[in-house]
């Protein structure tokens, strides 16, 4: 089984430096709008997304989670599937300390699942949540190993 935790890299010097410079979750999320969505076939490291300024949904989610974790925020990459299809999507769930609630942050803005605040809802099957320390497997981690391998 692939250890997905290693993809979230808040300790990377470049990521940590940028996160501290940006300073807040809101500013970090605004910064992510500069990252262009480009479909990918294999995952690249968050620092590579930072250098290229482009990535697909999982790459952008892993970068956003890394930046948030670098400033001490509670955040996870969430991966879900649309039942009856092979479509996967990744975004970040972040614990908003002001409201003590979890918020969905979709940096790629490509596909919206489970009412992420954009109106339309699509039924999903959550596969897993993960960050650099923790993995919550909802019975789907084995099905995404091909995405999160080196």
In short:
By secondary structure, the protein is an alpha+beta fold.
Number of domains: 1
Could you say which overall geometry the principal axes of the C-alpha atoms support? globular
How many helical elements? 4
Reading the helices and strands in chain order gives: HHEHEHEEEEE
Q: Order of strands across the biggest sheet?
A: 5-4-3-6-7
* Ends distance: 12 Å
Radius of gyration: 14 Å
* CATH-derived topology: C8orf32 fold
> Which stretches are poorly predicted, pLDDT < 50 over at least 5 residues?
111-118
- What is the annotated CATH architecture? Roll
Strand content: 15-25%
Structural class: alpha+beta
Would you kindly provide a written description of the structure presented here, covering whatever features stand out?
- The protein has a single domain (4-144), classed as C8orf32 fold, CATH 3.10.620.30.
- The protein is 26% helix and 23% strand.
- It contains 4 helices and 7 strands.
- The protein has a 5-stranded antiparallel sheet with strand order 5-4-3-6-7. A two-stranded parallel sheet has the order 1-2.
- Strand 4 (88-96) and strand 5 form a beta hairpin.
């Amino acid at each position: 089984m692939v250890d997905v935790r290693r993809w979230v890299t808040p300790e990377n010097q470049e990521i940590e430096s940028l996160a501290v410079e940006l300073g807040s979750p809101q500013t970090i999320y605004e910064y992510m709008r500069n990252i262009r969505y480009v479909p990918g076939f294999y995952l690249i490291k968050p620092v590579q997304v930072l250098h290229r300024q482009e990535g697909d949904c999982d790459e952008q989610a892993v970068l956003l989670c890394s930046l948030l974790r670098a400033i001490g925020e509670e955040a996870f990459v969430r991966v879900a599937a649309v039942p009856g299809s092979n479509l996967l999507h990744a975004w970040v769930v972040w614990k908003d300390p002001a409201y003590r609630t979890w918020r969905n942050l979709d940096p790629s803005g490509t596909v919206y699942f489970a009412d992420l605040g954009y109106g339309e809802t699509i039924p999903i099957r959550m596969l897993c949540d993960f960050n650099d320390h923790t993995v919550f497997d909802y019975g789907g981690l084995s099905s995404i190993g091909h995405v999160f391998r080196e």
